[in-house]
From TrEMBL:
It holds the Pfam family ThuA. It comes from the Bacteria. InterPro entries: Class_I_gatase-like, ThuA-like. This is ThuA domain-containing protein. It comes from Microbacterium psychrotolerans. The lineage of its organism: Bacteria, Bacillati, Actinomycetota, Actinomycetes, Micrococcales.
């Protein structure tokens, strides 16, 4: 039976929403999804279309969504539509909507920078070498089973989150003399969330195309997409 996937992309161009989602369209089609692409989250307000959608793959950083769109997305997920995404395309979307933030369960707060002497005024200022650590739950979960802790050099997301998420992997921000915090901060890096009859999947790694093509990141995202879908 063919399932339907709705890819919604847009927002800040720095996350390459078109090129990034294009990386996963062949996987979706090969996995048996009938795929459509929209460039505007207002599609979420179409109740009939959302009811017929088994998976939303979202890549919309920042930007805005109407109250009707957010309500439509929440209702669709609660009724069984899956929601999946990576990095700012899901964890830094629609900052002005508390209802959206509650649905996803985690919100980007910052990505700490390098030492001030190494800052040059471009995106690489925030590219740190860090470890993604798979949790005990993650070692048993179908999304991350068999994946060992791995290192990345990219933005390390600091995430504000609640206790309704199931954390499959974490990353820890160390104390540095040039930052104002005084003890290490552990943030979720990969999580899932049950919402009504639906499922939500989030991977915070995914800032750039090379990160999305890292074998560990890509495997986690592909498995997460399948896990979230109705």
């Amino acid at each position: 039976m063919t399932r339907t996937a709705l890819v919604v992309r847009g927002g800040w161009d720095g996350h390459h929403p078109v090129e990034a989602t294009e990386l996963f369209l062949p996987f979706l089609r090969d996995s048996g999804f009938d795929v459509t692409v929209e460039e505007d989250p207002q599609v979420y307000a179409d109740a009939d279309r959302m009811a017929a959608t088994d998976l939303v793959l979202q890549s919309v950083t920042m930007s805005q969504a109407s109250n009707e769109a957010v309500r439509g997305l929440r209702e669709a997920v609660a009724a069984g539509t899956g929601l999946a995404g990576w990095h700012g395309g899901i964890a830094d979307s629609f900052r002005a909507s508390s209802d959206y933030l509650q649905l996803v369960g985690g919100q980007f707060a910052t990505h700490p920078s390098k030492h001030p002497d190494e800052v040059h005024g471009d995106q690489t200022d925030n590219y740190l070498d860090y470890t993604v650590e798979v949790t005990d739950l993650g070692r048993r979960h179908e999304i991350t089973a068999g994946i060992d802790d791995f290192r990345l050099t990219t933005e390390q997301y600091w995430v504000l989150h609640d206790d309704l998420i199931d954390v499959l992997a974490t990353t820890t921000h160390p104390v540095q003399p040039y930052h104002p915090w005084h003890r290490p901060i552990t943030s979720p890096a990969v999580w899932t969330r049950d919402w009504g009859q639906g499922r939500v999947f989030v991977s915070t790694p995914g800032h750039s195309l090379d990160v999305l093509q890292d074998v560990n990141v890509r495997t986690i995202i592909e498995r997460g997409i399948l896990w979230a879908a109705r």
